[in-house]
Amino acid sequence: MRMARVFVGLVAPGSSQMKRLLLGMASVGLCLSTGGQAKADYTFRYPIDPPGSIRTETQGINTRGDIVGFYEDADHIVHGFLLIGEEFTSFDVPVSGTTWTQGSGINDSRDIVGRYIAGGQQHGYLRHIDDTYELLDDPPEGHSPQPYAINNSSDIVGNFFDETDGITRGFLLSGGKYTKIAPPGSTFALAQGINRFGLIVGVYELDGRRHGFVRLSGGRFIYPPDYPPDRERASRLTSNVGINDPGQISGSFIDADGVRHGFVNEYGQYTTIDPPGGITVFASGINASGWIVGPYTEAATGIIHGYLARPVPEPGPGAASNRLGLR
């Protein structure tokens, strides 16, 4: 197992630096743990489908519980959507020829990021709550960016095609500057989630297998164990997709039988997330209360829907941060 080292200097108790340090150490705990299986209960809201959809994927969720995603209509045009309470709002990037608008990530200001396809070309966008848009520049060394998530500091993570070596890599877009995100030696990488402390999660490929990673705000990579930990039934793929401020990670894995499930990783303890009657499940976004959204395929019909999973019992106010000893 690859190990990460943490060097602790003189940090004042209760300071923002100490809080960031504790969160970083909690994430290191993901790497050092044995990757056990936890027992947890969830209630599910499903299916989540905007009116007129024939396929729906829920992708991101913020602290308020607002949900973002995308759906396909009967004409096979893909639209983004925002779900606040019971009200759906459909949206499309206002670029001529757009046939695909994907809502992927949302922050507490209800800024939304995702990708759009116009004229056969893929680009990224940022949508504000007043329905105004910023069209994101492509990374300087590549093209076809796909933003996945945005935090409350407006830092955006996603992936792009790197023209310098022909490899798909993750990116961090912060302050107008792109930074490549890829574990050393990897031949493929996606950066898929970011929290307020700058912790980034994603998936990378090494020696033909895909694993999850956590990137600390200073740039250090750590590697949680694959799920399940049983080597004889180890997954063919473990993908970290979302991370909340307390450090819980949502994602998916493909088991030894080739079936994909969602999961939550809480400091090395994994819980499988599968809506009743669902197969091919992703746990995509996770908020500070541990609410999870993602798509699943209805086993009886083969139709893809969105879902929301809520833990039972739900943590009380401040409980999430208190698990790390933060106040």
As an assembly, this protein is single chain
Coarse shape: globular
Indicate the percent of residues in helices: under 10%
Order of helices and strands: HEEEEEEEEEEEEEEEEEEEEEEEEEH
How would you name the CATH homologous superfamily?
TolB, C-terminal domain
CATH architecture: 6 Propeller
Look at the structure and give the mean pLDDT.
87
Total discrete domains:
1
Protein architecture, described:
- The chain is built from two helices and 25 strands.
- With 327 residues, it is mainly β.
- The strands form six sheets. Strands 1, 22, 23, 24 and 25 form a five-stranded antiparallel beta sheet that branches.
- The longest helix is centred in the N-terminal third of the chain and has 17 residues.
Give the SSE layout.
Blueprint: H1 16-32, E1 41-48, E2 55-61, E3 67-72, E4 78-84, E5 87-91, E6 98-106, E7 112-118, E8 121-127, E9 133-136, E10 142-150, E11 156-162, E12 167-174, E13 177-181, E14 188-194, E15 200-206, E16 209-215, E17 221-222, E18 237-243, E19 249-254, E20 260-266, E21 269-273, E22 278-279, E23 285-286, E24 292-298, E25 304-312, H2 319-322
Antiparallel strand pairs: 1-25, 2-3, 3-4, 4-5, 6-7, 7-8, 8-9, 10-11, 11-12, 12-13, 14-15, 15-16, 16-17, 18-19, 19-20, 20-21, 22-24, 23-24, 24-25
List keywords for this structure.
327 residues, Neuraminidase, five-stranded antiparallel β-sheet, four-stranded antiparallel β-sheet
Give a brief description:
With 327 residues, the protein is mainly beta. Helix content is 6%, strand content 48%.
